[in-house]
Design brief:
By secondary structure, the chain is α/β, with parallel strands linked by helices. It is 30% helix and 23% strand. It has twelve helices and twelve strands. An eight-stranded mixed β-sheet has the order 6-7-8-3-9-10-12-11, with helices on both faces. The protein has a four-stranded antiparallel β-sheet with strand order 2-1-4-5. A hairpin with a 7-residue loop joins strand 4 and strand 5. Helix 4 packs parallel to helix 7. The radius of gyration is 21 Å and the shape is elongated. The protein binds iron/sulfur cluster and magnesium ion (MG).
Length: 344
């Protein structure tokens, strides 16, 4: 099966007076039809920028400087999205027409000036030539599909009259209005309370199952990854450090950063003790001041002096479809993996 979206060697950079910020620095990833790829990492790792690059939604002084993003909607010829003019008609057709997108702050994506119905009708008519009353019927149907109660009444309310969860449902409805082959969701539940979060995740899984839609799901939350992902890409400072299926990432994580992220999930101990909450030690270096060699070495428990501070590791294959960017696996004199003795 050919990937629906195949990104290779993507570099997105920002020129600032203080130098170049390499927000996305040579990213390779694939999204397969009907599957969910979760892109996970701490803030500043480039996961949002990767998602925005797909849609050519990078604000100046940022721009895509290198790489290819092959987009193959069903039955159509592959298009390299990276080669399209960010302001041109072809990317506009893709954006919102073939690829839907939802963001962290649903409220800020909706105009306070327009009713829910007006937003939906506009989205529908942007990509389809249908008369207004027909579009209105379609809008109502979309509101029903995303589980909004009393859709007739909700058509006429303004975004600020809705809760955060209801707003996000409206955003999902807008994203679905073009029947997208791919939905890109950038932290869509981060701003919501836990109960609402769970409901939105359920909704996304339902619509995905109905539509056979693929999803690229950006999150910093491994709980969300466990819930949503088929495939996982772990990013650190603009690079993919590990990729694999969700089973591989949770049951056989290989990169020290993936291990550290998994260790940071609070675990309930026996006897009702307070859950232990660990975070990955140290701070993410500033992207303008990247470490030499491996970018994770300033926080890595396994860094090998003379190796990790000198050479940037390449990706190596460690299992069927699992790849890791770490000298522990690739260096001739390395241990061939994370040394057991250091594990708890
Ligand atoms: Fe740690 Fe070295 Fe692997 Fe980087 S390459 S993650 S510093 S062991
Ligand atoms: Mg972000």
């Amino acid at each position: 099966d050919l990937p629906l979206l195949e990104i290779s060697g993507l570099r997105t950079q920002f020129e600032t007076p203080d130098g170049t910020v390499k927000a996305v620095d040579g990213v390779d990833l694939e999204v397969h039809p009907g599957r969910t790829l979760c892109v996970v990492g701490e803030s500043g790792c480039g996961k949002s920028m990767t998602a925005r690059s797909v849609m050519q939604l990078i604000d100046p002084p940022g721009r895509i400087v290198e790489g290819e993003m092959h987009w193959r909607p069903q039955g159509a010829e592959a298009v390299d999205l990276a080669a399209l003019d960010p302001d041109g008609e072809p990317i506009r057709q893709v954006r919102g027409g073939q690829i839907g997108m939802i963001f962290q702050e649903p409220m800020s994506s909706l105009s306070p000036m327009y009713t829910v119905g007006a937003h939906l009708i506009e989205a529908i008519r942007l990509h389809r030539e249908v008369p207004k009353d027909e579009a209105r019927k379609m809008a109502l149907e979309l509101l029903r599909r995303v589980g909004i109660p009393q859709p007739e009444q909700r058509m006429d309310v303004y975004p600020f009259q809705l809760s955060g969860g209801m707003c996000q449902r409206v955003m999902v409805a807008i994203a679905l209005s073009c029947d997208p082959a791919l939905l890109i969701a950038d932290e869509p539940t981060t701003a919501l309370d836990v109960t609402t979060q769970a409901r939105i995740l359920d909704l996304l899984k339902d619509v995905q199952a109905e539509n056979q839609m693929a999803m690229m799901f950006i999150t910093h939350d491994l709980g969300v990854v466990a819930e949503m992902a088929d495939d996982v890409v772990v990013m650190y400072l603009g690079q993919v450090v590990e990729r694999g299926t969700v089973e591989q990432i949770f049951s056989a994580p290989r990169h020290p950063y993936t291990r550290a992220l998994l260790d940071s999930i609070p675990k309930l101990r026996d006897g009702g003790e307070r859950p232990r909450l660990r975070t990955v030690r140290g701070m993410v270096p500033h992207p303008q001041n990247m470490p030499s060699g491996c970018r994770f070495r300033t926080r890595c428990d396994f860094a090998m002096p003379g190796v990790c501070d000198v050479d940037m590791p390449d990706s190596s294959v460690v299992g069927e479809g699992q790849e890791v960017r770490c000298h522990l696996y690739s260096h001739a004199d390395g241990p061939g993996g994370i040394p057991d003795a250091v594990e708890e």
